[in-house]
Design brief:
Layout lengths: L11 H13 L10 H16 L6 E5 L4 H9 L3 E5 L13 E7 L8 H10 L1 E12 L5 H10 L17 H7 L3 E14 L2 H10 L15 H12 L8 E13 L6
Parallel strand pairs: 1-2, 1-3, 3-4
Antiparallel strand pairs: 4-6, 5-6
Length: about 260
């Protein structure tokens, strides 16, 4: 049988590096953006309460905002947080009765494999909730990057998951009671540079295996001008973030 290798679109080392930088940024002081990660964490708290799931042994993959850590530990959960776990490989330390993944599934090469490994790391009846930005995100930034290099645009923004494909992926991965839903956040920016800084603050920078070189001075000026051209009367540009939420369980039979 001929094996089929997974295309290496993303660099695992770059994905982990961007996450580690985002976790370290608050310690440097200043105004550090965290609204996307905090939104994902609050959503996980709400979902845990809605399904009345009080985990005993939980794993969080990605950054862990204080509100989510406090919620779990106050409920008596034994919690481990990992920055280095590759969701597309078997998870160590399990099984867990809850796994939360915050903002990491947007940049794994083998998303179907990751969904299978997350399920396999659960106890029978265990719950997994994963949140990440989806394919309808960042239209203003994408337009600015195209304007920067109109003749031959380089790959600067990595491809994102289309929420419409997610239900089939969860079913193929064997998740029980799978739920896929999305919501959007609209954030207003006075400049392209602030948008890029906010993405880096939250570990959402470029994780491509073969990143393009930095924009030249002229291309960067075109990108900034294209972004500014989308401004509303108050001078700010509205950027959109689509958040995809995947929820499901392992069957009580452990399959």
């Amino acid at each position: 049988m001929i094996g089929h290798s997974v295309p290496q679109i993303f660099s695992e080392a770059r994905r982990i590096a961007r996450l580690r930088r985002s976790v370290q940024r608050p310690s440097t002081g200043g105004d550090v953006a965290a609204f996307l990660i905090e939104d994902m964490a609050e959503d996980i708290i709400d979902r845990l309460g809605f399904v009345r799931h009080a985990p005993a042994h939980a794993q969080l993959i990605g950054g862990c905002p204080a509100a989510l850590a406090d919620h779990l530990r106050c409920g008596g959960t034994s919690l481990s947080v990992s920055l280095d776990t590759n969701p597309a490989e078997p998870l160590a330390g399990g099984p867990y009765d809850f796994i939360g993944v915050i903002g990491q599934l947007d940049a794994v090469n083998d998303l179907p494999g990751a969904l299978i490994h997350l399920r396999n790391a659960l106890t029978p009846g265990g719950l997994v909730i994963a949140s990440f930005i989806g394919g309808q995100s960042l239209p203003a930034l994408r337009a600015a990057m195209l304007a920067a290099e109109p003749d031959r645009p380089a790959p600067r923004l990595h491809p994102l998951v289309d929420a419409r494909a997610a239900p089939a992926l969860l079913q193929r991965a064997g998740w029980k009671d799978p739920v896929v839903d999305t919501h959007t956040l609209a954030v207003r920016y006075s400049s392209l540079d602030r948008l890029v800084a906010d993405l880096r603050d939250q570990g959402l920078g470029n994780a491509l295996a073969k990143p393009a070189p930095p924009l030249g001075k002229a291309a960067l000026a075109r990108a900034r001008a294209a972004f500014a051209a989308r401004a509303e009367p108050d001078g700010k540009v509205t950027e959109t973030f689509e958040i995809i939420n995947l929820t499901g369980r392992r069957s009580l039979a452990g399959t």
